[in-house]
Design goal:
DUF3298; three-stranded antiparallel β-sheet; alpha+beta; DUF3298 domain-containing protein; PdaC/RsiV-like_sf
């Protein structure tokens, strides 16, 4: 049997942001951010299940955000990067896409496992879950977290995160080079130094376990899986990415002070960083 994740770089989607951010309104309400007064967010969802056999139940849950006021196709393609088959970005089009994804998932489980599924004698619940969550929209920087999880047999389920920040002023996904000119090897040295600043909460018989005690890598990559607030840049790592599954997901902050002298001028001005 295999473990699957409904990917959104995905790592598709379950829980936990590492710091407080400005929450924005969803479900068709306008945001309170004056800079994006006309910015509107809606969503579509699907939540369904089916029985493959008397012992095997399969569930599919997914949520996509809808942005009726965003018209730039390149930007929208980037926002829905994990759903490359989406051609219609309207609410009706995205709902139809999710319904089709659900049917494809149910059919794939039935067809891929029909040779042995009838041999399952104890109750199992398999699932695929993926969610887009709008975390913040400030200074024309929109942060979306993509969270995916899944289980199709095995010791445990899997989950993963993908963080993306979109520059709504310039209609593009924000890259690390748009924030700082610091070489990646220097950022990676800071990440290693800051590894224990935000512990994942993993415990053992002696209490809390430090992130540094669970690392599986000698170098922590400065990946594209980042976001930020007014104090720090944050790098988010899914289970198995840099540490064992038991460590959970790990978030490492890099302060603006750590990046002093290398910040992009436009970014620094828009974020009002001193």
């Amino acid at each position: 049997m295999k473990n699957t994740i409904a990917v959104i770089a995905l790592s598709s989607f379950l829980a936990v942001t590492a710091c407080k951010k400005n929450e924005t309104a969803a479900s068709g309400e306008k945001t309170e951010n004056k800079a994006t007064e006309e910015f509107v967010v809606d969503s579509v969802k699907v939540n369904d299940s089916t029985k493959i056999t008397d012992s095997l139940k399969v569930s599919f849950t997914s949520k996509l955000l809808v942005f009726p006021t965003l018209k730039d196709k390149k930007l929208l393609d980037s926002i829905y990067f994990h759903n490359v088959n989406i051609k219609d970005f309207s609410k009706a089009g995205l709902q139809a896409y999710l319904d089709n994804e659900k049917n494809n998932y149910f059919n794939s489980v039935k067809n891929d496992n029909k040779d042995w599924a009838s041999d399952v004698t104890y109750a199992q619940n398999w699932y695929s879950s993926s969610h887009m969550n709008l975390i913040s929209n400030s200074n024309d920087y929109m942060h979306i977290q993509y969270l995916g999880s899944g289980y199709e047999g095995g010791a445990h389920d899997n989950y993963g995160f993908s963080e993306r920040v979109f520059d709504l002023k310039n209609n593009k996904k924000l890259e690390l080079k748009d924030i700082t000119s610091m070489p990646k090897n220097k950022i990676e040295a800071i990440l290693m130094k800051n590894i224990d600043k935000m512990n994942s909460g993993t415990m053992d018989g002696d209490g809390e376990v430090k992130n540094s005690e669970m690392l599986l890598v000698d170098k922590i990559p400065a990946s594209d899986n980042f976001y930020f607030d007014d104090k720090n840049l944050y790098f988010h790592y899914s289970p198995y990415e840099i540490a064992a599954f038991a460590a959970g997901d790990i978030t490492i902050p890099v302060s603006w002070e750590d990046l002093k002298g290398t910040l992009n001028t436009e970014f620094k001005e828009r974020m009002k960083i001193k």
